[in-house]
Design goal:
heterodimer, A: mainly alpha, MetI-like fold, 8 helices, about 80% helix, B: alpha/beta, Rossmann fold, four-stranded antiparallel sheet, 9 helices, 10 strands, binds adenosine-5'-triphosphate, binds magnesium ion
Chain lengths: ~220, ~260
């Protein structure tokens, strides 16, 4: 007795491919904005820029302490109420960026703060400008420290895209739920769901550990 | 050591005050350093020796007075601060090499990016300098692959490669194992014979005595003694300096006494 009906699977495959592609597109777009927001927040906090630094801190707390689903509803149903038109795709990306920004900020900040002050001081004492010190001395070291939490965030955010189905984005989760509701092929649908998430996330995970191993091998540290 | 004919003033510290909040660390302190002069700064822990060097390199702002290098004021936010910093090389107690760069790249980073020198030329000079401190074969190594003494010699070379007019050393041997202290001090002694202008903070009293043209004794936020080493070490003028030196002799005796267990 076959557990899985391969004919059904073949039939659903194109729908899942479509959905996976949407998940990846929205995920990547959201993560790119999350990286930008994270960089800005981390730099503003590292340099203790007045006002902006407090704004970043408030944003990070809100972002980290509310569920993505709530953030999405807020953007999806809230923004049109105050006269800002929006659509599901934009909402999905914005929601992911809003959530991810704070996580990326913390990843970058932990990297920056791990670099001892003496590194900055010896760079400055050699005559490097603040910008050169950042570029040639601090950022390369901070980046390698930020890699593991960064990869973890990417995986976390891609997984979080599964709540996009709540605002009717036809991502993997939506497709699976939809098909189950229509045809009751629960086993095949869930099987495909797991396989597709793994197909997206496993390569990133493996790449991440390879990168981490390389970095550990390079073994910074005075 | 022969008395040097004092050349023109290179660094002039005039009535500076340095406070951290309510804590006044340097109080109306003045000091002139002439070209070619080697000044050793000593004093009890926490008296402000590091702070003084950091002020000279504008790593710390001062609250009063001024510091002039070649007649130009040094200020952290001054627009020519990077030019002035290039003229003052500084070596810290430890951990100041850049761990993500090889020894050679550590040395040529500032010459290339700040002074815009050609790669080949900067690297050639770096290798020559490395050879002089016995580390030419370490050019491709990373700081983590070096001993403490080797790291400090690289840090000195890195400062030298910028052609500074003056060098600041802040207890550069304090974090080293005893057997490595010598190799670093030898490098600094050699620099003194080349006529380098140096301001050296150290707890190595033998070394201070050998290298200094003048010894500055810092305590309570000010300079209490400013004398040639022969006088400072044999006949200090203040009670505080006498106590300070006594403490060192005691420590030295203890250090050389056989272990009791
Ligand atoms: N960044 C800072 N913030 C607040 N106080 C500081 C700071 N740096 C130094 N101090 C204070 O300034 C005083 C002088 O410190 P400094 O490091 O210059 O002493 P030092 O003479 O170099 O001592 P040591 O021989 O232990 O190195 C100390 O009381 C110290 O607590
Ligand atoms: Mg000190």
């Amino acid at each position: 007795m076959a557990v899985l009906d391969w004919e059904v699977i073949q039939q659903y495959l194109p729908l899942y491919q479509e959905a996976a592609w949407l998940t990846v597109r929205l995920g990547v777009a959201g993560i790119i904005f999350a990286i930008l927001i994270g960089l800005i927040c981390a730099i503003v906090q590292y340099f203790k820029v007045p006002a902006l630094r407090q704004i970043a801190a408030v944003y990070i707390e809100i972002s980290r302490n509310t569920p993505l689903l709530v953030q999405l509803f807020f953007i999806f149903y809230g923004l049109p109420k105050i006269g800002i038109p929006t659509n599901a795709t934009v909402c999905g990306i914005a929601g992911l960026a809003f959530l991810g920004g704070s996580y990326m900020a913390e990843a970058f900040r932990s990297g920056l703060e791990a670099i001892p002050a003496i590194q900055t001081e010896s760079a400055l004492s050699l005559g490097l400008s603040r910008a050169q010190t950042m570029r040639y001395v601090i950022l390369p070291q901070a980046a390698s420290i930020s890699v593991p939490p960064f990869i973890a965030n990417v995986i976390f955010l891609l997984k979080e895209t599964s709540v996009f189905s709540a605002i009717s984005l036809m991502d993997l989760m939506f497709t699976a739920k939809d098909l189950i509701g229509l045809y009751y092929k629960t086993t095949e649908c869930l099987f495909l769901l797991v396989v597709f998430y793994l197909l997206i996330l496993l390569p990133i995970s493996i790449l991440g550990s390879l990168l981490e191993r390389r970095l550990r091998h390079a073994g910074f540290g005075a | 050591m022969a008395v040097k004919i004092l050349a023109e003033t290179l660094l002039s510290i005039r009535h500076i005050a340095k406070r951290f909040g309510d804590n006044t660390v340097l109080d109306d302190l003045s000091l002139d350093v002439h070209k070619g002069e080697v000044i050793v700064v000593v004093g009890p822990s926490g008296c402000g020796k590091s702070t003084l060097l950091r002020c000279i390199n504008a790593l710390e702002p001062i609250q009063a007075g001024e510091i002039l290098l070649d007649g130009e004021p040094i200020k952290p936010d001054g627009k020519n601060i990077t030019e002035l910093r290039q003229k003052v090389g500084m070596v810290f107690q430890s951990y100041d090499l850049f761990p993500h760069l090889s020894v050679l790249d550590n040395i040529v980073l500032a010459p290339r990016k700040v002074q815009k020198r050609a790669k080949a030329e900067a690297e050639a000079e770096a290798l020559t300098l490395l050879e002089r401190v016995g580390l030419k074969d370490k050019a491709a190594s990373y700081p983590r692959e070096l001993s403490g003494g080797q790291k400090q010699r690289v840090a000195i070379v890195r400062a030298l490669c910028m052609h500074p007019e003056m060098l600041l050393f802040d207890e550069v041997t304090a974090a080293l194992d005893p057997e490595m202290v010598r190799e670093v001090l030898d490098v600094i002694l050699k620099l003194a014979t080349q006529g380098r202008t140096m301001l050296i903070v150290t707890h190595e009293m033998q070394f201070a005595r050998a290298i200094a043209d003048r010894v500055i004794f810092l305590d309570g936020g000010n300079i209490l003694e400013n004398t040639p080493p022969e006088i400072f070490f044999t006949n200090p003028q203040t009670e505080r300096a006498r106590q300070f030196l006594n403490m060192f002799e005691f420590a030295a005796v203890k250090h050389h006494a056989p272990a009791e267990d």
